[in-house]
Automatic annotation (TrEMBL), chain A:
InterPro entries: Peripla_BP_I, SBP_2_dom
Entry's Gene Ontology BP terms: transmembrane transport
Keyword Chaperone: no
PANTHER family referenced in this protein's UniProt entry, alphabetically: D-ALLOSE-BINDING PERIPLASMIC PROTEIN-RELATED (PTHR46847), GALACTOFURANOSE-BINDING PROTEIN YTFQ (PTHR46847:SF3)
Organism: Marinomonas foliarum
CDD domains: PBP1_galactofuranose_YtfQ-like
Localization annotation: Cell envelope
GO MF, any single term: carbohydrate binding
Protein name (database record): Monosaccharide ABC transporter substrate-binding protein (CUT2 family)
Cellular component annotations (GO), alphabetically ordered: cell envelope
From TrEMBL, chain B:
Topology with respect to the bilayer: Multi-pass membrane protein
Family under the similarity heading: Belongs to the binding-protein-dependent transport system permease family. AraH/RbsC subfamily.
Assigned keywords, A-Z: Cell membrane, Membrane, Transmembrane, Transmembrane helix
Taxonomic superkingdom: Bacteria
UniProt-annotated location(s): Cell inner membrane
Keyword Transmembrane (UniProt): yes
One Pfam family, short name: BPD_transp_2
Name of the molecule in the record: Monosaccharide ABC transporter membrane protein (CUT2 family)
């Protein structure tokens, strides 16, 4: 993979049809052709890296989906560097793949390489994040809608409390799109319920330590749990930290304070099974299926939406033990 | 008159202390119940306790940082060392049956090894401290991620729980650990010649070498000490959340530690170690953080408010401001003296 990615980009190849390019390369590289012919589709996947458990499961899920369909998936790990991703995409173009999955590490700076892919008539599907480029340069984006996640959390809470609740909120990193959109979606729904208010809101930076420290200060400032009905955390890790803070202050999570958060990391299922968290919404890592379907649809000349929303379900404690065993 | 002399003499000590008291009082007037402390389950409970509890990791790191800065060095790698020692603690607790004290010793040893690495780069290879420790600052978090395989490793251990969140004589155990470490360091630095030697090396390496001080070994041991302090902090931070978060544990803590040392009035040019004032600096930073969290300030303003107050404290402490303040009082006194017809004794114009 590494050897291929240093191959210089060959823009003139774009003049040929995809199949023609493949033949050219199959003459040059018999090894490559063997693997390419065996598969139905050949897909290049440029992943950001493996910085979080979620991203690792996303990679595994996409690889598994490609294997299930019998596709030849060419995987490249960019180790958090955009230049590595651009190199990988160019090498995919040079290899004449049928489609490219790109999980962009940053939003900007993709125009040139996306144009190269377009000239080579290779569809690019953005995975789990967007880019700041002309939408005509890529086929579609397959990603969760953070706003809908926030709305789902608020809807669940409204149903659970009959629209009557003082909420404390643990926000994600200030300025991150996940934090902004999850808050917007949540606020939009609770705006319909006059007796649901956010009494405290602070940033826990998406970390366990942050969630714990902020929850400690919330409990002090509110004089314990009596004025707090629920905690909404923008991710599970902050909720897990907050649960520790509650237990240390003698407050019983789920009994004194409801806990709802987003992401569905394995540890929150353990907390739910132990009766310490109420609900989590999955940040769906299974994006391979919709992405491959979009590439097939475009090959058939069908129109594809520019944003395929792949939202995950809301999980409750009843299935938590089984889910934890599955994800551990 | 006498009081004025006292102020002049101790202005440097009083400035950080008064800033701390002022910040606490202002917060208390904005947030009701900030000063209240009550007993819950046989231990003290309140925002002031939170400040002490939360300040311990930074205090330990700042202690090591104060010594390193005293040698005219700096240690940027402490945040990464926290991540590494936390990762070692978690992985050994989960994957081995070793007794917890062996695990803790391993984590402390790892921190000292990291310090040794920094110390060798600085004192043997004469690489500038900021560059030498930058290497581990960048690489260290990667090492921690390798140890935890990129996951948050959660563990359960009664002893570690006690270190992270337990209480002894109504105070958090980790505060006792920090107090013990501070007392020990003050004792070694101030009751033996070691502190003087380190300050001498920081002030002038060549001169101290000429009088027979083994500068190289002293600098080396300062970094090992800083590594040890960071490792203690890393164990406490991992024990606090019962897990090792290689990406976020101790992130940017090195900057808070450096700030605390500077708030204490030390110069980054070395030659001075103020251990107790450094702890006051840590308390100022943590009080601000806790105050902002309890105040209900919108999140977007957190950092700006924090920076503005820190800037104000630094400005009050700057030599120029101190000069102005003392000039102001001198002039006033001169004016008062001349109006009553008394001759100026000259004492008023005494330089601080």
């Amino acid at each position: 993979m590494q050897a291929l990615s240093v191959r210089p980009s060959l823009p003139w190849l774009g003049a040929f049809k995809r199949k023609a390019v493949l033949t050219t390369f199959s003459v040059l590289l018999p090894v490559l052709s063997a693997s390419a012919m065996a598969a139905d589709l050949t897909i290049g996947f440029s992943q950001i890296g493996s910085e979080s458990g979620w991203r690792t499961s996303e990679t595994q899920s996409i690889k598994a989906e490609a294997e299930r369909r019998g596709y030849d998936l060419k995987f490249s790990d960019a180790q958090q560097k955009q230049e590595n991703q651009i190199k990988a995409v160019r090498s995919f173009i040079a290899q004449g793949v049928d489609g490219i999955l790109l999980a962009p590490v940053v939003e900007t700076g993709w125009d040139q390489v996306l144009k190269e892919a377009q000239r080579a008539k290779i569809p690019v599907v953005l995975i789990d994040r967007g880019v700041a480029a002309d939408p005509s340069l890529y086929l579609t984006k397959v990603a969760s809608d953070f706003k809908e996640e926030g709305s789902l959390a608020a809807s669940w809470l409204a149903a659970k409390t009959n629209g009557r609740c003082n909420i404390v909120e643990l926000q994600g990193s200030v300025g991150s799109s996940a934090a902004i959109d999850r808050k917007t979606g949540f606020d939009a729904v609770i705006g319909n319920f006059p007796n649901m208010t956010i009494t405290r809101s602070q940033s826990g930076s998406f970390t366990r330590a942050g969630g714990k420290e902020v929850m400690e200060s919330f409990l002090k400032a509110e004089g314990g749990a009596k004025n707090i009905c629920a905690l909404f955390a923008h991710n599970d890790d902050m909720a897990l930290g907050a649960i520790l803070a509650m237990k240390e202050a003698g407050v019983k999570p789920t009994k004194d304070i409801l806990v709802v958060s987003i992401d569905a990391v394995p540890d929150i299922f353990k907390a739910m099974a132990d009766g310490e968290a109420n609900a989590t919404i999955e940040l769906n890592p299974h994006l391979g299926g919709p992405a491959f379907d979009a590439i097939l649809a475009s090959q058939d000349g069908k129109k594809v939406d520019k944003w395929i929303k792949a939202n995950g379900p809301l999980y409750l404690p009843d299935t938590a033990a089984a889910e934890y065993a599955k994800r551990k | 008159m006498k009081k004025n002399n006292f102020l002049h003499k101790h202005q440097k000590t009083l400035a950080p202390l008064l800033s701390l008291v002022l910040i606490i009082l202002i917060t208390a007037s904005v947030t009701p119940g900030f000063l209240s402390i009550r007993m819950v389950d046989g231990h003290l409970f309140g925002s002031l306790l939170d400040i002490l509890h939360r300040a311990t990791p930074t205090a330990l790191v700042a202690l090591g940082m104060a010594v390193v800065i005293g040698t005219r060095g700096i240690d940027l790698s402490v945040g990464a060392v926290i991540a590494i020692s936390g990762a070692v603690t978690a992985v050994l607790t989960v994957n081995t049956d070793w007794p917890v004290w062996v695990v803790i010793l391993c984590a402390l040893g790892t921190g000292m090894l990291c310090g040794l690495w920094n110390g060798i780069l600085v004192s043997v290879f004469n690489i500038q401290p900021i560059v030498a420790t930058l290497i581990l600052m960048v690489a260290g978090r990667g090492i921690a991620q390798m140890i935890t395989e990129g996951q948050i490793v959660t563990f359960h251990s009664d002893v570690l729980d006690a270190i992270g969140n337990g209480y002894f004589l109504a105070f958090p155990i980790r505060v006792w650990i920090a107090i013990g470490m501070i007392a020990l360091t003050v004792l070694v630095m101030r009751k033996t010649a070691l502190g003087l030697f380190i300050e001498a090396v920081g002030a002038n390496v060549r001169a101290s070498r000429l009088v027979g001080i083994e500068a190289r070994l002293l600098v080396l041991s300062a970094y090992v000490f800083s590594g040890l302090c960071a490792a203690m902090s890393g164990i406490i931070l991992a024990a606090d959340i019962r897990g090792a978060d290689a990406n976020n544990a101790g992130l940017w803590l090195e900057l808070d530690a450096i700030l605390a040392v500077v708030l204490a009035g030390a110069s980054l040019a070395g030659g001075r170690i103020y251990l107790l004032l450094t702890i006051v600096g840590v308390l100022i930073i943590q009080t601000l953080t806790t105050a902002i969290l309890t105040s209900g300030l919108p999140v977007q303003y957190n950092l700006v408010v924090k920076a503005t107050i820190i800037l104000a404290v630094l400005l009050v402490q700057s030599p120029k401001t101190r000069q102005w303040i003392s000039d102001f009082f001198t002039k006033k006194k001169r004016a008062a003296n001349s109006s009553t017809g008394k001759a100026d004794t000259g004492k008023g114009s005494e330089k601080p």
